């Protein structure tokens, strides 16, 4: 059982959340969309699995490196 941690790559705000803890996801699925400098940035899973924890809510401001979610495969 591998756990994938998904982190913010830049300072941004959470525009839209697409998953909840316990959701099944496929490789390449969008977990959330971040907004930075009027650009929408989808955050994708690398591997299929189950969303273990979701650490963000819509409207939240993230700093580079903040944990967004964990996915267990």
Automatic annotation (TrEMBL):
SUPFAM superfamilies: Single hybrid motif. Pfam families: Biotin_lipoyl. Residues 1-72 form the Lipoyl-binding domain. It comes from the Bacteria. Keywords: Biotin. The keyword Kinase does not apply. This is Biotin/lipoyl-binding carrier protein. It comes from Goekera deserti.
């Amino acid at each position: 059982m591998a756990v994938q941690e998904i982190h913010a790559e830049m300072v941004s705000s959470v525009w839209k959340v697409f998953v909840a803890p316990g959701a099944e996801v496929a490789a390449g699925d969008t977990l959330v969309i971040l907004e930075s400098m009027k650009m929408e940035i989808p955050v994708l899973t690398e591997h299929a699995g189950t969303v273990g924890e979701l650490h963000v809510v819509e409207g939240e401001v993230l700093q580079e490196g903040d944990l967004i979610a964990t996915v267990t495969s």
